[in-house]
């Protein structure tokens, strides 16, 4: 199963398009957002797309919904609702979704089979650096962030087990058409990569050395022209 965990904008048209592409490749796929009811989230339906006027409005709604900690609770609850599929679960999170996923991946579950997590521009994990994921976790950082030193965070993270780090010279939010930092070329390349790479995961070895290394190599290649930088344990 492939699970998309959105940023503060929620289940946008871009998110729905990615989910539909995964399903077209034969995967069960589900979209989780800060605004879903985790007890009714399913892998066979989509909710109405969310649309905020700007990032400030999205951020305000996100805070009203409980912020990162509440989002992590929703992600955990939703994943526990779909364990009856007995499928390995691969999660892809963006921004707040990546940071919520980081919290969830550090927990031990009896029934949730997280096999690989991928988090794009996960800025809020700087507040949770004491955590270590229990499954392979690929983190994709932007070139810089306005509110903290990305390099210092990376230096801490690359010492952890199960963690691979990629840094590309793009801005936070580059994949999301609703973000102020949207980069159409990079977003299209990333979308193609996610569809192409994850379409093969039914047989892909997701071992920390083999599977994650292959995926990180793909992420590095997609950043051509942006002075991409890759670090992998």
From TrEMBL:
| Record-annotated Dienelactone hydrolase domain positions | 3-192
Name of one Pfam family that matches = DLH
Any one Gene Ontology MF annotation carried by this entry is: hydrolase activity
Q: What is this protein called?
A: Dienelactone hydrolase domain-containing protein
Question: What is the scientific name of the source organism?
Answer: Psychrosphaera saromensis
């Amino acid at each position: 199963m492939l699970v998309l965990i959105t940023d503060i904008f929620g289940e946008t048209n871009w998110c729905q398009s990615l989910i539909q592409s995964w399903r077209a490749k034969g995967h069960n796929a589900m979209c989780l957002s800060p605004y879903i009811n985790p007890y009714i989230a399913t892998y066979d339906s989509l909710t109405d797309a969310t649309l905020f006027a700007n990032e400030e409005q999205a951020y305000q709604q996100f805070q009203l919904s409980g912020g990162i900690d509440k989002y992590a609770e929703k992600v955990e609850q939703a994943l526990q609702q779909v364990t009856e599929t007995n499928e390995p679960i691969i999660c892809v999170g963006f921004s707040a979704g990546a940071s919520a996923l980081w919290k969830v991946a550090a927990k031990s579950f009896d029934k949730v089979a997280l096999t690989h997590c991928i988090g794009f521009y996960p800025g809020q994990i700087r507040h949770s650096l004491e955590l270590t994921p229990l499954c392979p976790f690929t983190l994709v950082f932007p070139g810089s962030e306005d509110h903290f030193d990305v390099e210092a965070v990376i230096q801490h993270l690359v010492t952890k087990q199960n963690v691979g780090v990629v840094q590309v010279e793009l801005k936070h939010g580059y994949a999301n058409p609703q973000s102020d930092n949207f980069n159409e070329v990079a977003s299209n390349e990333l979308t193609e990569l996610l569809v192409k790479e994850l379409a093969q995961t039914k047989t892909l070895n997701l071992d920390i050395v083999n599977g994650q290394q292959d995926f990180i190599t793909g992420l590095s290649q997609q950043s051509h022209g942006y002075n991409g930088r890759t670090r992998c344990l």
